[in-house]
Amino acid sequence: MEAQLKLLYDMTKELAETEESVSYERFEQLIVLRERVIESLNQHKELSNDENRLIKLIVQLDASIHDRMCAIRDEASKELRLINASRIQRSGYDASRYGDSYFIDYRN
Fold first, then answer.
1. Phi-psi region of 49 (alpha: psi -120 to 50; beta: other; left: phi over 0)
2. Engineered SS bond to 64: which of 16, 38, 79, 86, CB 3.0-4.6 Å?
3. In which domain, by residue range, is 8 found?
């Protein structure tokens, strides 16, 4: 159990201390690892002092990880809005509004 907590702490600390260039895949790996550790914690009734200490250290890093994940979410949301806006503009030009009408040039 302590080995899993140590791995989780190391990964959490690494992601909390790195620059903004961390991909969302790394955060996804962290979430999967956290879920496995939580399942293991639910099965164990008592934790040692070292395990409690590691859990407290992980919780202290949660705020920075959460902020980073929110920033990634907001950036993705912004990009999706831009894509949808350009799609709407393009569909306005591509639509054939006058499919059944004729254009007659009287000058010739």
1. alpha
2. 16
3. 2-91
